[in-house]
Amino acid sequence: MILDGKCPTGPIEQTWDKHRFDLKLVNPANKRKYKVIVVGTGLAGGAAAASLGELGYNVEAFCYQDSPRRAHSIAAQGGINAAKNYPNDGDSVYRLFYDTIKGGDFRAREADVWRLAQVSNNIIDQCVAQGVPFARDYAGYLDNRSFGGAQVSRTFFARGQTGQQLLLGAYSALARQIKAGTVKMFPRTEMLDLIVVDGEAKGITVRDLVTGELRTHVADAVVLATGGYVNVFYLSTNAMGCSVTASWKAHRKGAFFANPCYTQIHPTCIPQAGEYQSKLTLMSESLRNDGRCWVPKKKEDLGKKPSEIAEEDRDYYLERKYPSFGNLAPRDIASRAAKEQCDDGRGVGPGGRGVYLDFSSSIKRLSEDTIRERYGNLFEMYERITADNAYKTPMRIYPAPHYSMGGLWVDYNCMSNIPGLFVLGEANFSVHGANRLGASALMQGLADGYFVIPYTIGGYLAQTKPGKVAADHPECKKSIEEVQAYNNKLLSINGKRTVTDFMRELGSLMWENCGMARTKESLEENIKKIPALREEFWQNVKVTGSGAELNQQLENAGRTADFFEFAELLCRDAHHRNESCGGHFRAEYQSEDGEAQRDDANYCYVGAWEFKGVDKEPELHKEPLKFENVHLAVRSYK
Amino acid sequence: MSDHKTMTLTLIVWRQKGPNDPGKFETYTAKGITEHHSFLEMLDVVNEDLIKEGKDPIAFDHDCREGICGMCSQVVNGVPHGGQERTTVCQLHMRTFKDGDTIYIEPWRARAFPVTRDLIVDRSGLDNIIQAGGYTSCHTGGVADGNALLIPKEIADYAMDAAECIGCGACVASCPNSSAMLFTGAKVAQLAALPQGKAEAAVRVCAMTDALKESGFGNCSNHYECEAACPKGISVKFIARLNREYQKALLK
């Protein structure tokens, strides 16, 4: 099937305004008759629930954490992009649009990206009005910094805690609606099924994580804002609870999964220290404004302390390879460059998997106090984890899985191929193409939540009668029975290996064979090994306790079971895409100097997969990508 | 960083099935722990052993494991988050302990935070306080340009100092009165300092103070334990600001 993204046509500058006018409206008095479910309360979900509640819809919001304020958006450090052009350095909506299309290696939809760039300025205004304490200069104006993949300073920030402050802004707007009674909040509640009636999304089945109770919630539309899936690698910068579960359950009910192979490996993370490790910690990309990446030129220098290696014996590889962007090369490129140096046997630290991020020349130029003012909390965090003082010795960093550009397929209205199912933020695939630029995730989450879904959901609801499905619909009963049976099965296996043990093995297969570089052979190995490991999981996993109580093992077992099915799809997608683009690097397809080589003639499309059953091959649907404003070109940062 | 020395530790952990269960301490041994394990990774090791023995693992809250989500909440040797300055328990590393140590692990203890299970407590009281007024009543869309109101750096920095609160509740757990006045004061001060929050300052402080009482938190009597326990180092000066804003509101 050829998929249609339903993008508006005509001059790109007018597409969103025209589309907004064309969308049907729901009468203010009728809005309260419509119930909308929002799953996930990070930037996208929190902003959506608050904005829809404020419009007058009857909203129910769900999150697995104990409070909506804890969603993983909170961990974003560096900042949020907007095309304000406050520094007068040549920025514009068009430039942000262009940078994002190019940064995504020409694998995103133009119209969606244009809209993102257009509303980016409204987001900053909205957050300031909420009391988000963005950094300001002494005169009181908003301050900006630079980020990877851009040559203008368009990133707004709140110390190293921008995600936290933006999330607390959305959380406060949500809190206001909870008090007003327009939003009913269900914390510690996990979505375990999507209810589809007559082809439309009409509700969800959830598990109360405290009591274990399973119940259904019906609604007129369901919005998923449930984040990304890179915990499929086991070790990632994601929070421990981040999973593919909500998206996967929707996929199993018919929602197409688009471009799952586009995964972002972030270049600046603290290297893994041991087998026991549960997660990896990111060091903000903003550090690359003042930190320089290097490894020793000579292998015989590897055992030395960094301070003992002479300046001329250091290889500042990003500055050497990409002179115009230098240390601010985009993430996919910076990550691969680090891997290249380590593969060449010049990586530093245990196992040779690390590169230096060195602040000494910036400290000399600007003073230690200035560096402390800019990144103090990050240096503190680094020291807590590694016991090293990065003011005195360079940080040691290595790439780690961080973000997923792929996600559920949506059209221009953020609606999936299942009518009534909307998908926002990292959970959808729409704007980042094959690689996301720094400080664009926060922008997308809030754009979708504050400024896209409030309009586009009206277009769907205006054409549907409220309350079509009642809580006692047979599909609801069936859904609960299925979830119950699934959980009972997990609890009854009583095998020998723990859930974590299985997840660690799956993650290692994914990292080795489907990580920063992939080949036809490595992917075929995974497509063979994953189903076998999945089968062992269902025969040999051990989950103690019962389903009728707080049971963190059962939660993890369910999420791991979904990762087992999803991992195979990710590998199949990577296997079918015979090109390299952005975060998807197939070693067979590279230029002479090791850069990603796209194949626009054959792969300039969105690959959206349809579920056909576990152990059955999924079906591929294509949405061709057209570039009418930015010309397809080899992406260069040299 | 490579170090093959491992530690063996004795853990005395609070186990409680539910809010109405009496609960008790149980003793466990943590083996094979290195100085690079985080405190929660050390508990992961113990839990894996418990699962293999067919026993219920220790339930505890955690999520980001990088000190920002505010989910983790354990009293370690009598101190919320374990007592390392400006550090959540998920960022506490085992290099601060030594082989043979005995470690006591308990949940936050406060009437307003009933125990859900083991080390997990119910902190919805903190959400109630924010819902009472911890926001500016701006609408989505239709707001002024971000630079329309200038905010001098000192004011923006002051607001950011307050806004750093991660809502973990260590301030409550450390306070002899189980007061949430540092938590509340930080939000009141952040919004009262900014021009965007000034218009509702009086209504906000009264509503949030009422919610504080209704949720069962106590009052501040200047012990300053909260500031010492706070993983973000939020200053008690924000409690003074809370009191000042409250008095100003009463005089209106």
Short description, anyone?
The complex is a heterodimer of chains A (638) and B (252). Chain A has 638 residues and is α+β, with helices and mostly antiparallel strands. Chain A is 37% helix and 14% strand.
SSE topology sketch:
The complex is a heterodimer of chains A (638) and B (252).
Chain A: H1 15-22, H2 28-31, E1 35-39, H3 43-55, E2 58-62, E3 80-81, H4 93-103, H5 110-130, E4 155-156, H6 162-180, E5 183-186, E6 189-197, E7 200-208, E8 214-218, E9 221-224, H7 245-252, E10 257-258, E11 263-269, E12 292-296, E13 314-315, H8 317-321, H9 331-346, E14 355-358, H10 360-366, H11 368-386, E15 395-404, E16 407-408, E17 421-423, H12 441-461, H13 474-492, H14 499-514, H15 520-540, H16 552-576, H17 600-603, E18 605-610, E19 619-624
Parallel strand pairs in A: 1-2, 1-9, 2-5, 9-17
Antiparallel strand pairs in A: 3-4, 6-7, 7-8, 10-16, 10-18, 11-15, 12-13, 12-14, 14-15, 18-19
Chain B: E1 7-15, E2 24-33, H1 39-52, E3 75-76, E4 79-80, E5 102-106, E6 115-117, E7 120-121, H2 124-133, H3 153-163, H4 170-174, H5 181-193, H6 195-198, H7 201-214, H8 225-229, H9 237-251
Parallel strand pairs in B: 1-5
Antiparallel strand pairs in B: 1-2, 3-4, 3-5, 6-7
Please give the CATH class of the largest domain in chain B.
Mainly Alpha
The N- and C-terminal alpha carbons of chain B lie at a distance of 60 Å
Q: Helix count of chain A, per DSSP?
A: 17
Largest sheet of chain B: 5 strands, mixed
Question: What portion of residues of chain B is helical?
Answer: 25-40%
Structural class of chain B: alpha+beta
Instruction: Compute the number of strand runs of chain A.
Output: 19
User: According to CATH, what is the topology of the largest domain in chain B?
Assistant: Fumarate Reductase Iron-sulfur Protein, Chain B, domain 2
CATH homologous superfamily grouping of the largest domain in chain A: FAD/NAD(P)-binding domain
Mean pLDDT of chain A: 96
CATH-level-2 architecture of the largest domain in chain B: Orthogonal Bundle
Global Rg of chain B: 20 Å
Helix content of chain A: 25-40%
State the fourth-level CATH superfamily of the largest domain in chain B.
Alpha-helical ferredoxin
**CATH topology term of the largest domain in chain A:** FAD/NAD(P)-binding domain
The CATH first-level class of the largest domain in chain A comes to Alpha Beta
Radius of gyration of chain A: 24 Å
Specify the overall morphology of chain A: globular
What does the largest sheet of chain A look like? 5 strands, parallel
- Describe the oligomeric state of these chains in a short phrase: heterodimer
